[in-house]
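#structure-requests
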Amino acid sequence: MKKFNFSLQKILDYREFEKQQAQTELGKAVAVETKIQNTLDMIAESRAKSVLEADKMKDLNSLFGVNQYFQLLNQRRDEMTEELLKAKVVTNEKRAVMIEAMKKVKVLETLRDRRKESWRREQLKIEEDQIDDIVTSRYGYFGDASPSSDSPLNQFS
């Protein structure tokens, strides 16, 4: 029996490569987004610690310094929030590209599976026809499927 050959296998391989690339790109985008979120979390923690320290301070210059630090943290938080929004947009774009690549692979895999099943049924039909031909030719040769007395096979009995 000959082996199944999917004519679009090279295209399927290429689509799978594209899917892997898209997954890698999505992973990088998610990593950037996570890094920015971690930075925002650190800013929030720093602000909370500074508030606790400011409550203990009584010196006006120290309080002024803490206020300046709060302004710096607020500015940094705003910058990071803006970067996070941009990163989320990039992540969503990468996710859409990956989903599209996955759909393309799935379509080709489904087509391959259907063609393989059709090929398998065709091969079974060919085998059945060959077996039928063998049985029919044997029946035709022996008549009633048993060798007769004038059959050449009876010469060896």
